[in-house]
Amino acid sequence: MTLDSLAPCAPGLWSHEHVTVERVPSGPITLTQTGDLLHVRHSLGPESLSERLVAEVTASIGGAGFGQTEFELTMVGLVRSTVPDALESWTVYYRNSLTELLDGTADFAPIHDKAAELVRGSVLDLGSCFGFLPLRLAGADVPVTATDILPGTMTLLDAVAPTLGFEIETLVCDAADVPVPDDYADTVTAVHLLEHVDQAAGTAMLAEALRIARERVVVAVPYEDVASACHGHVRTFDAQALHALGASTGRPFEVFDHHGGWLVLEA
Question: Mean pLDDT across the chain, nearest whole number?
Fold first, then answer.
């Protein structure tokens, strides 16, 4: 069943497939598993809806042995069960998250700061997911195109961006097959994308990024000892692996560490 993050639901109660999320009067986030069914209970208020929840949900879901599907559905359910109106719930989540990313209180803030520092001119972002980086760039008057393989994420971004006062383009596509012409954007970003795909797919995505970029490609990956299954990671990187990836392209490149690893390729 395709996930529609804006579909109607009862106030305080959201369900999709085998995951139900319920808002209760008090208490921490708790998980109850009955067979294949997962029931999540929480007492969050609107002020708590932001990317900061990722760490808490990761600890809860990962510790219980669940995977990426359960993680993603729990995050959607927390947002939708906290604020009754669908679009308003996501607007709150996005606004809170962007505030924390810009003021430096979000865990991912240093990564977005570095990405914004590295881009040149117009940007096409691969694997945008919720689209926080494209929104941040759009807020700085950077022409930006967000892309993702999941239609639902781009539909959500299209709905929320205007309510936040941002203008961005979106595309639903595989990051290895983007329907744009050569040299479409000055910079192509792939921020925490390659750890989600195997080596062959990652190589194809990097080749596609170089086709699209006029000036540079910016890649960021986390450094992990073990791939984080609940976030959909299937492989790990270190500086040596990034050096090998950069060298394989035949392009000038730089590798450095900053809250993970970075590979910057000159197109």
Answer: 95
pLDDT reported for residue 58: 83
CATH code 3.40.50.1110 for 107-266: no
194 with 221: CB under 8 angstroms? yes
Position of tokens 């970075």? 262
Spatial neighbors of 97 by CB under 8 A, at least 6 apart, are 50, 51, 52, 106, 130, 132
| Pair 265, 250: CB distance under 8 Å | no
Within the chain, which residue ranges are assigned CATH 3.40.50.150? 107-266
Of 56, 5, 42, 69, nearest to 229 (Cα)?
69
Phi, psi of 103 (to 5 degrees): -90, 0
Place of tokens 């195109």: 145
**Cβ contact 102:116 at 8 Å:** no
Q: What's the pLDDT band for 266 if we cut at 50, 70, 90?
A: very high
Rounded to two decimals, the pTM is 0.94
Give the pLDDT band (50/70/90) at residue 27.
very high
In the numeric block, the tokens 């219980």 are attached to 64
- Measure the CA–CA gap between 12 and 30, rounded to whole angstroms: 15
Give the chain's largest Cα–Cα span: 58
DSSP notation for 176-190: TB--S-TT-EEEEEE
Residue 4: Cβ-neighbour burial (10 angstroms; 0-12, 13-18, 19+): middle
C-alpha distances in Å from residue 149, one per residue of 115, 129, 152, 173, 190: 21, 9, 9, 5, 13
